[in-house]
Write a structure and sequence with these properties.
Blueprint (H helix, E strand, L loop, with lengths): L1 E5 L3 E5 L11 H20 L4 E5 L3 E6 L4 H20 L4 E5 L3
Parallel strand pairs: 1-5
Antiparallel strand pairs: 1-2, 2-4, 3-4
Length: 99
């Protein structure tokens, strides 16, 4: 299962959807596409708004500077991920935490 933790200043993504084998998993591909498109969009607008780490176990986005555009892109990303969660509840879980 992919677990996405959303906090005020940080978003972290862990796990594998387990919908299909690695490399042919449409759920993992969808989540990855949404996240990387959002990261690239934000960095194209403001390179200092976020920083992220990505390794085989964790993808973490740290929000360094908020703005209207950054907030819209992040809200859009979370909204799209929620749609994936709604369609594949056994494969994606979003946890929202304050702070």
């Amino acid at each position: 299962m992919i677990t996405i933790e959303v906090k005020n200043k940080e978003i972290s993504v862990k796990g594998h959807a387990g919908f299909k084998n690695s490399g042919s998993d449409i759920v993992c591909a969808s989540v990855s596409s949404i996240i990387y498109t959002s990261i690239n969009g934000i960095l194209n607008i403001d390179k200092s708004a976020i920083k992220y780490i990505d390794n085989e176990k964790l993808l973490k986005i740290e929000i360094l500077r908020k703005s209207t555009v950054v907030d819209i892109l992040l809200d859009n990303m979370v909204g799209l991920l929620e749609e994936i969660e709604n369609q594949y509840p056994e494969n994606v879980k979003i946890i929202k935490k304050g702070g």
